[in-house]
Each structure stands twice: as structure tokens, then as C-alpha cells.
Amino acid sequence: MFDSLGAFVPGGNMTFEGAEKGPLKGFGFAVKDIFDLQGYVTGYGNPDWQSRRRPAKLHAEVVQKLLDAGAMVIGKTITDEFAYSLNGQNMHYGTPANSEAPGRIPGGSSSGSASAVAGGLVDFALGSDTGGSIRVPGSYCGLFGLRPSHDRISRAGVLPLAESFDTVGWFARDAWLLHLVGEVLFDGKADTDKKPEKLLVAVDAFDCLDLRSRGALKPHLERLEQRLGKAEYITLNPDNLSVSSLYPQGEAPADPASGGLVGLADIFRVLQGREIWTAYGDWMTRVKPRISPDIQQRLDWAATITDEQVAEAEEKRTLFVQRLNRLLPEKALLCLPSAPGIAPRIKEEAETLAAHRSKLLALTSAAGLSGCPQVTLPLGTLEGCPLGLGLMAARGSDLELLAFAESFCGEEEQQSLSQF
Hints:
The protein is of the alpha/beta class.
């Protein structure tokens, strides 16, 4: 296979045939380089990590399940180092091309997987989503993508980042294929008695967008209301929950671009950072691997997180989850943007990318903290670039969410065709 997009790791064109029969027979998929493939080292996006690891003895459980369903592995894709970034830029292996927004980043950390699917090199691809690594590349590259309910899909044979947030996700160019892969991985079909009947809209999430981005998503929000009825407009973080000890005088900074959701991002960053440092701090300190400056800066900060900050973040997380569970029952969908705008340009200033990442986490943290599933739908466009719209559902409602996405996007496609 010719990798015209720089999506695959060096030497990553390994293939594994799937079963002779199965629902995914005839489909090829790529695997992010945090999933074990038998006989190959799982590199985690970093040469110093890879050089110290042995080849995997078995496929990751989710990979084996897809093979058993007839799908074929077509290579291993680039990830940001240690999956700890949302940009999709790897200083060792390069930046996979974003064929839907040339000259712009693909998003990370599942960058190569998104690039390979968007560019048509594979039918679908496995990635992971801890802080947005399916939803963000899906939005930037014009793909359907699912971050599933936490712990719904086995992570055996998958390198962890922050285990209370880590999920196995996937991308596809079509909603029906995203759904079909879900039926395989979830071992079932959607419960028709639990199909969505109510729409919620997160006002503080849409406040993260500029006027043009809101305008690009507005027609699709209106169509959701046509399908599910008049939306109930809610605020995800009305109490501005945050880790107060991160700020002078215990007050979170006013951030109109991110609204109160910056507080949820604070909670997420503290808990994620502590889990990452607990898992890898000793190794990082001992080996001192070569790491890109932005990721090294995050790791250095993670080392400073205090027990008091973690305790406060855990308490605030519990309060948020309790509130969201009341707001988001079965048969309801919560609409929010997948990203605060289109993909930044590849040569964007580091400070600009850092500010953009903060806005991303403000949007993605709700699903991470709650463990709820979220799908990104490639519905909006701005300046000729994709912009995703997200739908969250109650924890465990993954198949119903996928079924709705397929049905709704099929209707959207028919409406678009009818205009010609």
C-alpha cells in the first residue's frame, strides 16, 4: 500500500486477514499505534518508548474481534506521542495529511487513523479518545467518529493514558459503517424502544464558538429540532465548577470564549494529569525520552499536581456527573459542537495552538468526566473545511446513538440531494 498521506508509522504497512465470513468481510481498517498487533512493537508515537519494548504476543482484544468479524488490518497509524495531544503533529514521524482541509492539522492524538480514513486508504480505523482524540480529528477531517461509553469496549492490549477516561473509538466516512462496526464491537443492535425522543442543547458549549462557526452549525441544529421537537436549552456548568486552587484567590479566570466550561476542563486536566504521571512518571524521569516541547510541558505540569487538587477535582467531578445524569436520561440527546472551529493551519504559532487546545478541552471534557458516549457528525463547513456537530447520550446508550446518527444523517443527505 502506498501511503500518500503520511498516515502510517514507518514500516506500518503490515496486514492481517480477517475471517472468511462475517459482517465486516471486505472492509479494511487501520490501527492506531497504541493497539497491540501480534509480532509488532506498539510504539506509542515515540522512538525511545518503541526501542525499549518487545513485540506483542497477541492482538489487542478489539482488533481480534474485528478480525473475527471478517475485517482486514491494513497497517498501523501515527499517533501523537503518548497520545497526549489534540494537534496530530508528531516531531518524530511527521504530521499526517488532512485531505479534507489541506494545509491544516488533522487533529490528534488519533491523527494517522483519521487521515487514513478521510483520504480513502482504509474503510474505517481504530483510535482512542481520552480527552477528545476521536471527536477532534473527526471534526477536523470531516469524519463520523464515536467516543463510546467508558468501559463499554475492552482496552486489553491497548496502551493506557489515563485509564478512568480512556476509551476505544473509531472513524468512518459513512454513518452506516460507523454503526455496523459498533454492532460488532457492542455485540448487539439498538433497542428500538429506547430511540431518542428529546433534544438538549448546551448553551455554554455553543458560546465557545465564534459567530461564523455557530452559523455553519445552525441549520443542522434546526433539523435536529425538526426531528426531535423543540430543544431544551441547558447550561452544562452553571455553577462554574473548577479546581479553585489552580488560580490566585481561588477564582477561575473569566473566559468568554469558553464560558463556564473552562472549569470542567480544569477538573479534567488535573485528574488526567495525575493518572498520566502515576502511570509514566517514573519511566519519564528515568529514561528522559525525546519528547516534543508542548507535550513535555504538559508532563512537567502533571508532576506538580497536588493531592489537594486531585481531591477537589474528584469532588467536583462527582457533582458534575450527578447533575448530568439528571439532565441526560435515556431517550435524550445532548447537542454540542465537536470542536470550537475548523482545523488550525499546520504552521500556526505554538501559543495559538495552546489557546485552541484549551477551548477544545472546554468542549470535550463533559463526555470524558461523565463517561457518556458522544458521536461527531461531519455536518458543518466553513471556509471549505469540515466542522463537526456532536451528540451525547446517556451512558450505555451507544447503539441507540449510532442508530440515530445513521438515520438522521441519511435524511440530511437526501435533503441535500433534493436541492439539486
